[in-house]
Amino acid sequence: MLDFLLEPLSFGFIRNSMIMIILLGILCSVTGSFLIVQKMGFLGEVIAHAVLPGLAIAFYIGIDIFLGAFISGMLSSLIIAWIQSQSRVKVDVAMSLVFSGFFALGILLITLLKSRIDLHSFLFGDILGVTSYDLWRTFFITISVIIFVKLFYPHLLFYTFNPLGAQAIGLPVAWINLGLVSAITLTIIASMQAVGVVLVVSLLVGPSISAYLLVKELHQMMFLGGLLGGISGVIGIYISYYWNVPSGASIVLVVTILFLLSFLFSPSEGILTRPQVLSQPHKLIKFLVKK
Amino acid sequence: MLEVQQVAVNYRGIVAVENISFCLNAGQIVGIIGPNGAGKSSLIKSILGLIPLERGKITFRHRALSKQLDQVAYIPQRAQIDWDYPITVYGVVMMARIRHRALFRSVSRQSKELVENALQRVGIWDLRDRQIGLLSGGQQQRVFLAQALAQEAELFLFDEPFSGVDKKTEKMIFNVLDELKKEGKILLVVGHELKETSREYDRFLLINKKLIANGSRAEVITPENLQKAYGDNVILLANN
Hints:
Chain A is an all-alpha fold. Chain A has one domain: ABC transporter involved in vitamin B12 uptake, BtuC. Chain A has helices spanning about 1-5, 10-35, 40-60, 65-85, 90-110, 120-125, 130-150, 155-160, 165-170, 175-210, 220-245, 245-265, 275-280, 280-290. In chain A, helix 7 crosses helix 10 (about 175-210) and helix 10 (about 175-210) crosses helix 11. Chain A starts with a helix and ends with a helix. The mean pLDDT of chain A is about 90. Chain B is an alpha/beta fold. Chain B has one domain (about 1-230): Rossmann fold, CATH 3.40.50.300. In chain B, about 30% of the residues lie in helices and about 25% in strands. In chain B, strands 6-7-8-3-9-10 form a 6-stranded mixed beta sheet, with helices on both faces. A 4-stranded antiparallel beta sheet of chain B has the order 2-1-4-5, covered by helices on one side. In chain B, strand 1 (about 1-10) and strand 2 (about 15-25) form a beta hairpin. In chain B, helix 3 packs antiparallel against helix 4 and helix 4 runs parallel beside helix 5. The chains are: A mainly alpha, B alpha/beta. The interface of A and B includes residues 88, 162 and 167 of A.
C-alpha cells in the first residue's frame, strides 16, 4: 500500500504536480467561494475563455503571455459589468455574449497571427508538465490572494452578502469588486495550465460548493473547500498515473464525485441524510419507489 | 435635521423623482407612501447615495449626507437579501461595525457589546449562531433591525419593513421605532400599502414623482390627495 502511494512520488514531475494541485485547491476555494455566494459561477467560465485573445496578442508581440491573459480576462468582466449597468440587459445574457465573443476573437487571432499556441493544451491543460517557475508563480499568486482576502474579509463579506447595503454604508464597492475580479482572474490564469479552461470552473466552484452543503459560514466554506480541492487533486493525479488517463479529467471527476457525496450525505442537508428524512424513512422509500 | 432640497432623480433616462423637498426632524417617525412606480425607492436610494442626483441636495446637520453615510442605517427589503448566504445571525449584525474596524485588528469589545445589546433588544440573541436561512420571516426582519441598531446611526431608513412579517414582529418593530424616536433619531419608513398608514407615524409624505402632500395623517390621507397620487381607480375603504 505504501509503495502504491510512494511510487509516483519518486518522479519529480509528479511531485511538482501534487504541490501545484494542492496550491490550486486552496486558491480556487478562496476565490470560488466568493463566486458561489454572488451566484456568479458562470463568470469563472467566461473569464477562463476570455483570456484567449490576450494570450494570442501577448504571444505575437512577445510579452509575458500571463500578462496578456490577465488584461483580457479583466476586460471581459468589466465589459459585463458595464453592459449590465448601462442597459436592461441581464447579467446571464451579457456573460454569454462576452464569453462567446472573446473566445471567437481569440480563435480568429490565433489563426491570423499564425500563433503557435496549442489550443488543445489551452483547453485541457497539462498538470504533469508544470515547471518550478510555474510553481513559484502559483505560490506567489496564492499567497497574494490569501493576504488580500484576509485583510479585507469583512468588506468582501459585506459586499457579497448585501451590495446595496455596503454601498449605502459608504464602503468603496467599486474597488472591492475590482479586487475580487482581479483575484478571480489570477486564480483562473494560475489554474488554466493544470486543468485547462474547459475544466477550470470545476476546480473553482466544485470543492467549495461541496463544502457549502456541509458548513454554515463563508470562511468555513473556504477552509473545507480548500481541503477537499487538494484531496481531489491528489487522488486525481494518482488515478491519472495508474490508469494512464488525462490528469485534468481525473481531477475534475473526483471533484464531481465528492460533490455528489456531499449532496447525498451531508448531515444537515443531504438528500438521504437530512433530519427530516431520517425521522421519516418511509417517505424516502416511497419517493425512491415512485422513481 | 435632514433636509432634502429640490431633489430630482433620473433612472435610465426616465424621470423617477422631480423636485421634491422636505425636512425631517429628530424624534419623528415619517412614512413615505405612494403607488408603485411613484419613485419611493428611487428617493430612498438617492438619500442613501446609491443613485446620483440630477438636481438638488441632501444635507444632514447642514453637511452633505453623502459625506457621512455611516450616520445612515438602511434596513433593506427582505426580498433583496439572499437568505441562503452562508452566514449566521451574529455575522450579519456584526457587519454594522465595519466602519469601526481597522485593518489587521480584531473586533473591539465595544462592538461586541453593541452587537449583543442589539440582538437582545430585538429578541434574537438565542438565535445568534443560526444560519439566516433557517429563520422565519419575522425573525429575518429582526436581524436587519438589530444590524441597524448596532450601527449607532442617527438616521434610519426602513424599506417596506412590514411586508411578510407576523403581528408579533410588527408590534416589536414599532416598539423599537418608538424607543429610537425617544432617543431623538430620524426615522423614515417606506410602505407600499395604504393600510400601513397607521397611527404610529407622526407624519406622512405622499409622493408620485412629485411631493403631493406632507403633514399629519389627517392632512395627508384625504380623498383629494389620494386621488392625485393614485388616480381615479383608488377605492377608498372605510375611513378609519
